[in-house]
Structure formats: C-alpha cells, structure tokens
Amino acid sequence: MNNRRNQKRGRRDTGPKHRINEKIRIPEIRVVEGLEPGIYKTKDALDKAQSLGLDLVEVSPNQRPPICKVLDYGKFLYEQKKKEKELEKRNRENRVKMKELKFTPNTGENDVKHKLKKAIEFLEDGDKVKATVFFKGRMIVHKDLGAKLLLNFAQELEEHAVPENMPKMEGRKMSMVLKPKKGKKG
User: Fold this and answer.
1) Number of domains into which the chain is organized
2) Which of 48, 70, 88 is at the close of a domain?
3) Final residue of a structural domain among 88, 120, 151
4) Is residue 15 part of a domain?
5) Which pLDDT tens digit goes with each residue over 135-182?
6) Residue 140 DSSP class
C-alpha cells in the first residue's frame, strides 16, 4: 500500500534493493563470489557468510537457483551508488545542449552581428544553435525575408557550423538548427 502511495506521488521506493541474509527464503542458492562457487543450502551459506563477518546477498533472484554473493552489503551498496553517479556524470558531459537565438524579419544588422558572436561561442562549446525568426502580426507575409536572414546567418557561420536542416516554418516561426563542425569542441 505504501509503495503504491509513493508511486502516485512520484517518489522513489527507498527500500532495500536486494534480499540479504535471513530474508532469502529459498532452500538452495548458487554462490558465485565470496565462498567456493557452487550450490549451497541457504542455511549453510548464511552460516559461512556470518562466520566471515559478511552478508549473503541475492543479486539475481529470477534464476533457479537464485544467484547470491557473500560480501559486505554496506560496501556493495556504496560501490553501486558510486558507479551510478559516475555513469550519470558521464552521460551529462556527453549530452549536447541546444541554444536558441531569436530574430524577427527586420532584425538590425548590429543585432545580427552580436548574435553571430554568441552563436560562435555556443558552437565552440560544442552546443547546437537553433536560429528562430518570429513573425508578428502582418510580418507573416514576408517569409522570404526570414528565410534569407537564416540562410545568411548560416553562411556567416560556415567555418564554425554545419546546417542540420534548411529553414522551415512551424506556425508563426521559422527555424534552422546548426551543429558544430567536427573537431571544434573544446
């Protein structure tokens, strides 16, 4: 009941992830680490683990017989958390970010130059740049000006970026994505 309530509220279940020691109720288990590998009666494996001052941890409960390890459970959890954090950190570093620069069809030349400088910074950091032209009111009839602005913007950035797609309309805005050239990250 409590787990269901936590799931509804978006909370993670913080209970133990593995069955350990007396919570393993199956009569026979396969030990793969900590003792001589093989199939043991659960009671015998638990007695041997406790005599070594370690825990009997079920790591693969769906196998028949379940696979267990004899180890220090606190240290095991610590190392697992450490691996998860390292993997998350690596994924975060490899994630490509998208930066958006916004224009209107009549954006001034100096504003475009400033946004070019910003785009170069983003591209050198390895981020993608999404250039978007917003059409307000009757400006929508000048789609050609928006496309021309985006193509000129991409042309100015050709030594730093490669267009991922051509300018396309999405409702009242036209956008184009530029990705950094290979070897520029860093």
Assistant:
1) 2
2) 88
3) 88
4) yes
5) 998 888 888 989 999 999 999 998 999 998 889 998 999 999 999 987
6) G
**In whole angstroms, how far apart are CA 158 and each of 27, 120, 176?**
68, 10, 14
CA-closest candidate to residue 63, choices 33, 88, 30, 111: 30
Residue 42 burial (C-beta neighbours within 10 Å; 0-12, 13-18, 19+) = buried
CA distance 61 to 28: 12
Do 143 and 166 reside in the same domain of the chain?
yes
Q: Is 27 left (phi over 0), alpha (psi -120 to 50) or beta?
A: alpha
User: Which CATH number goes with the domain that contains 48?
Assistant: 3.10.20.80
* Integer CA distances (angstroms), 56 to 31, 34, 77, 133, in order: 9, 9, 13, 62
Between β-strands 67-71 and 55-60, what pairing exists: parallel, antiparallel or unpaired?
antiparallel
Read off the pTM. Answer: 0.50
Region of residue 38 (left: phi > 0; alpha: psi -120 to 50; beta: else): left
Q: Is 93 contained in some domain?
A: no
Domain membership of residue 120 as a residue range? 98-180
